[in-house]
Design brief:
single chain, 1 helix, 2 domains, 26% strand, mainly beta, five-stranded parallel sheet, 164 residues, globular
Length: 164
């Protein structure tokens, strides 16, 4: 049934993404629940989460709007142009060695950034709009973090910076 509905929508020209993939969902009506996944996502949006494998492009790695997003910047030097999760409902970013040197911008949902790779996250992590922010970094990371205003002790995992 999902395939027929998605096919009918494609034929009707009702979809805004250039390519579509089937995803898992509970049928509640959002684009990912209707069986559609933005073309940038890998792993067919398993569990309703867009997974992005970002390389070493100077352009930012951008999560599609209105869907949870997991960004893999584990390759050396990956995500050099930064990561934009401002439209995602939830965002998890993993940065490997020398990765994530550009700005990381979180949206209003929960945001988790792992900068445990050696010399990762040389830029800014902006969690100022997030309802929850957790940033883990290595001692060698020159990272600057902008926490939400309600986080009085910081944005590390033990700081209990969560109002979601």
């Amino acid at each position: 049934m999902r395939v027929a509905v998605a096919g009918a929508l494609v034929l009707a020209g009702c979809l805004s993404w250039p390519e579509h993939l089937l995803v898992e969902g509970d049928g509640g009506g959002s684009s990912q629940e209707l069986g559609l996944c933005p073309a940038a996502c890998t792993n067919l949006c398993a569990g309703g989460t867009c997974r992005l494998q970002c390389g070493s492009s100077p352009a930012p790695c951008v999560c599609p709007p209105n869907i949870a997003c997991e960004v893999d910047c584990s390759g050396a030097g990956s995500c050099g142009g930064g990561v934009d999760c401002t439209g995602a409902t939830r965002c998890t970013i993993s940065c490997g060695r020398d990765a994530c040197q550009g700005r990381i911008s979180c949206g209003a949902g929960p945001c988790t950034v792992d900068c445990s790779g050696e010399r990762s996250c040389g830029g800014v992590v902006d969690c100022s709009r997030a309802c929850s922010c957790s940033v883990r970094r290595s001692p060698m990371s020159p990272l600057e973090v902008t926490c939400p205003p309600f986080c009085t002790r910081g944005c590390s995992p033990q700081d209990d910076c969560d109002q979601c």
